Amino acid sequence: MEDSPDPPFEEVYKSLFDSATAAPELSAVEECELPMIDLEELNLGDISRRACKQKIARASREWGFFQVINHGISREVLEKMREEQVKLFAKPFSDKAACKDSNFSAGSYRWGTPTATCLKQLSWSEAFHVSLSDVLGSHDINNNLRSIMEQFAGMVSKLCEKLVEILGEELGQKWEEKCVASTCYLRLNRYPACPIFPEMFGIMPHTDSDFITVLHQDNVGGLQLVKDGSWFSVKPNHQALVINIGDLFQAWSNNVYKSVEHRVVANPQKERFSTAYFFCPSYDTVIASGVEPCVYRSFTFGEYRKQVQEDVKIFGHKIGLPRFLLQTH
């Protein structure tokens, strides 16, 4: 029998499905359209450029998410990236788990939630987590996947730099640190169809532990986010890239820009693909707001990352920025 591309969720997590305790309660949520920003406006003169920057900052304050068009990443690159990603995930699960691919180092493939003790902690998804330094470290120009990952990451990194610069300007500050290849990474995601259970997380609710994230997704849908205390489903737009603020940017902006909780809900009939780029500084970069009174104490990215990993190991979930709040009297 040919090896299936799907991870063995039902076999490995059989006890969770048998007990079906503490399953996610995913009531129907309202669909929303994220703020849409046309980055071409940055090239149309002072008035349009000023208005575009203000829209970017407003969306980052009020939503923590927005979408962009005319973003500088060609349709050809995006379509090729998706095509190669689909080929990659179509490989047998055993090959993916063993990382039998020259593009990826051992440990780059992840699936499910190894620490899950109930269904609401289980992510019905698989992913390749690839450091940008690994993407740029190969010169095998005949490798289609490696080549398109390099093109995609290079273009998206420039987009991140532009957005971070604009958002810093709107705060009256300048982000001096450069994000580096050793800590920035691509995450290639596949969310298999989940027909056996009506309500399942493709990925658990979380915030991103980076500075800013760029997401390219297909039209299947499933991305949801919190706005004003309620969950909303994001309407997919194949022409746009989704941008969201990460924890580091929220701390650096002193809570002006919001790193909001989001999740993916599995689809019972269709698989979903997405590619996320996480824009991160070096581990020794100090995250400190220049605004007083500061909400958070200063910390390094390395310190933050270590704390998140420890909390996930102990509690099964991330605690994040509340760990670094300054004590108030």
Q: Determine Rg (CA atoms, Å).
A: 20 Å
Cα shape: globular
Q: Could you give the order of the helices and strands? A: HHEEHEHHEEHHEEEEEEHEEEEH
Number of helices: 9
What's the mean pLDDT score?
Answer: 90
CATH architecture: Sandwich
| Percent range of helical residues | 25-40%
Which sequence of strands runs across the widest sheet? 2-3-11-8-13-6-5-4
What kind of assembly state do the chains in view correspond to?
single chain
Q: Please identify the structural class as seen in this structure.
A: alpha+beta
Number of beta-strand segments: 15
Number of domains: 1
What is the terminal separation in angstroms? 66 Å
- Unreliable runs: none
Fold-level CATH name: Jelly Rolls
Family: Belongs to the iron/ascorbate-dependent oxidoreductase family.
Organism: Salvia miltiorrhiza
Domain Fe2OG dioxygenase: 182-281
Protein name: Gibberellin biosynthesis-related protein GA2ox6
Produce a short descriptive summary.
GO terms for molecular function: 2-oxoglutarate-dependent dioxygenase activity; metal ion binding. The chain is an alpha+beta fold.
